[in-house]
Amino acid sequence: MGLLAGAAPAFASDKGSCAPADMAALAGWEGIWMAEGLSSDINGRSRPDQESFRPYSKFQGFDAPWNEEGRRRFKEAQIDLDKVDQGGWGFPVMMTAPTPFEITIGRGKTTMTGEYRDIRVIYTDGRGHDADGWPTIYGDSIGCWHGDTLKAETTMVHYTPEFNKLAATLSDNAVFEETYRLTAPDRLELDAVITDPETLTKPWVVHVNYLKHKILDRIVIEGALEQNNRVEQIDGQYTIKGIEGGLAGPDTDDSAKGGK
Q1: Residue 210 to residue 188: CA distance in whole angstroms
Q2: Which tens digits make up the pLDDT trace of 7-56?
Q3: What is the pTM (predicted TM-score) of this model?
Q4: Which one, 18, 31, 38, 47, has the greatest CB density within 10 A?
Q5: Rounded to whole angstroms, what are the CA distances from 192 to 97, 103, 186, 207, 222?
Q6: What sign for the dihedral angle of Cα 69, 71, 72, 78?
Q7: CA 220/CA 215 separation, integer angstroms
């Protein structure tokens, strides 16, 4: 942990130099996003037909270049997968989970807020990593804007099976280098490179496409999956109970595609 905390950041250190140069040009980033190929009901919760789908996330580790130690940890985690309740997503699983997230851009930080109360902050005010920090389920993220591209570095991410059992079994010293680009009005792309000599034989490269949610224009944050769930399916359409005439949601085929 001390090595990571004291390492020089890969970004400019002058205050404000990593902030967005043109906030208006980044307006398209704000909104509700979901990883391509996944879908949610119109209340933001994962679709029932995806509850048994695994892996949920590209960051779960099925295609990671594990070394012997990493493979041992991964196999051990899969054996115990059904013995632990999922407490939330954490990082990096929240970035490809079957629930939407919202991006809010400020001059000094960009915040990603998930439907399961996941909150991730990427500081873009030129600061380095937290010298007094310790590994947590969301890690420590700093970033820098380069025009309309956000580059981020996340360290001190702690795998905690009691909370985020679907995360890859990386060590606390893993480093995540992320590049986010808005490639179309309704499409955001992420290229991530993960290095962790303790568990990986080489850098692990992950590419994710995000699409803007077809229905939601805000994050719906509530309780457990079935608690106060007002979504019902009538004649192949998802609606909200109690609303006269219903509120149409995406059908199964369209929702799987995501986007507008």
Answers
A1: 5
A2: 445 565 555 589 999 999 999 998 899 888 776 656 555 555 544 444 45
A3: 0.80
A4: 18
A5: 16, 18, 20, 6, 30
A6: positive
A7: 12
